[in-house]
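Issue: copy button drops trailing tokens. Both records pasted manually instead:
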Amino acid sequence: MSLFAPLHEHCIFRTREKVESHALIANELSDHVLRWHGERIDTRLCKLDTPRLSLYSLQYGSEVSIFPEVYDQFSLIHFSLNGGIEVVADGKSDNVPRGRVLVSTPTKNINLRWSHDSEQLIMRLPHDFTCKVARELGQPSLHERMLRTPGLQLAEKASALWRSQLSAFVALEEGKNRVKGLEPWLTHVEQGLAMFLLLQFSPVLGDGEPREGAQTIVQSRQRRLERLYAFVHANLDKPVTLTAMARAVALSVRQLNALCNSQLGQSPIAWLRGLRLDAIRTALLADPEADLSDIAMLHGFFHLGRFAAFYRDRFGELPSQTRRAAISG
């Protein structure tokens, strides 16, 4: 099953009429002029809404040219799931092939030409939200830089990371009404999406991490590890950021990384992932009839294929094998 099947299941309209295509898309995204370069009209729009973000899947079928009005207080993030698009924003041209991402924030004008059978995953990112996240990062200049950049195409590796984050976003939105306790994870992923995009506007990627104040190390490394362990164990089924982990032990993010690598032989995130896998295994052994996907999502695993691979690497067996052994006694 496609990672984005839950999004495709939320089709809000499908039409083979030119005039209706224009009216319905304009109502959802932005008023625009729409020109068709073929007669195969098959417009489909799917949509998922969360409290802060909207994600669309949009297809026209035929090749089209779109001339939207300048976006009002939001950016659009295009991910080319199939086909590609050519974007000219404020005179800057970008060809966005399949698998790549474009952050679009035009201030004067924008033209888009979609290839035949192109499907775009489009996220509507409100500027009041990115402004808030940039302040929380301690880097409000990233938000200002984004507003001054009409179009930024992400590198191939960053685009792949964006696709992975979108799949987690879709899985959480699909699961939140079924699995109690996922709302904090959804908020966490929303903020992470905005943070990831903002950091793409940093002059030196990775140099914009949140900074703690001057640190005074008054406890031994072992004591810090004990505090870290207690903090993480209390939050295994909740979103935990590197910054929160560092703050819990009065270290900077860089110092936390150094501590975990020197004392635990791995990064804080890898260590946290292992503890969450341990917790899932304990839950499966205690209740083998429990829904595996629900347990995994509550512990921060939103892609079951990758979860199963992590689980097998840690325990030498798949979760299904653990379940069968627990049932058979």
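Record 2 (pasted manually too):
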Amino acid sequence: MRDRVKQAQVDAGEREGLASDEREEPAALRRENRRLREDVEILRRATAFFAAGTR
């Protein structure tokens, strides 16, 4: 419970620290980065598949 009160004070600018949205941003960027890497891998495999089929 105390952590929520402290975080609310940080979010309101009454206390030093990272705001809630600042804490969430790195995790969201890591998720997006992982998804984009998976997309690139899928496209790499699809390219290799179609390139092999044209020979």
